[in-house]
Amino acid sequence: MDFKNILTEIKEKVFTITLNRPDKLNALNNALGEELVSALELAEENAGVGVIVIKGAGRAFCAGYDIGPDEYGSKEAFADIAADRKQLLAHQRRWWRIWECTKPVIAQVHGYCLAGGTELAMMCDLVICAEDARFGYPPLRDMGSPLTPIWPWIVGARWAKMLYFTGDDIDGRTAETIGMVNFAVPGDRLEQAVNLLAERISNVPSDLLMLHKQQVNRAFEIMGIRSAVSSGADFDAIGHAARGAQEGFFLPAVKSGVKWVLEKRARLFPGNIFDMINNLKKKL
User: Rounded CA gap, 42 and 68, in Å?
Assistant: First the structure.
């Protein structure tokens, strides 16, 4: 297929999908999301493919959803909860397509992996990242609630709340420590590590891999992961219309621009709470 926002490559049994909006740090828009799903379906239908790898071109894996000025062109932005929820559910369905894919999906993360980028990575079956990759959800400070709240299932309640409440980000090493990723490796060895894992997995017959993946997923579905994660669209739609989000982000973005609001956010949240607390620990 002729993709415009992603690149695809098949090497032996590994199908690689590269998010290819490097000038936007691979920010997610509808076109990229639709192409990603199409590429997943191509890989799934190809009997010669054993494993799928998703990575990003340029300096980042994915910096989140595209929040260009066209997204916030009126005071009514996100005020219609029903219409907003419908759009959010469409985004969620793309992430569920990764969960439902019959073949293992590995996220290869470098640079920024923020907001919607974390949703994409966390819905993958396995994650290998660079040690200096950055994971976080800054928009939770003033825009709404997590659209695809899978983090509690991955890292547990304590860390999920810490990340949600502060909007601060963590590096790849910390992400490995808390179980958010499988491995954090030096950046110059990231590709090699992903290739080693993908090749290892691809030696297992595809029909058995499908059963293994579905068995693990079934356990989480019995525990309620689908209902819990799907509720994210409801909470996020309500969050967008909440006073805190309307007055904190959306209305100022209409009046003064998205860049102005992001700069204001940066001034309000200087530094990083994880670094601050770790520095306190060192002084004891």
Answer: 30
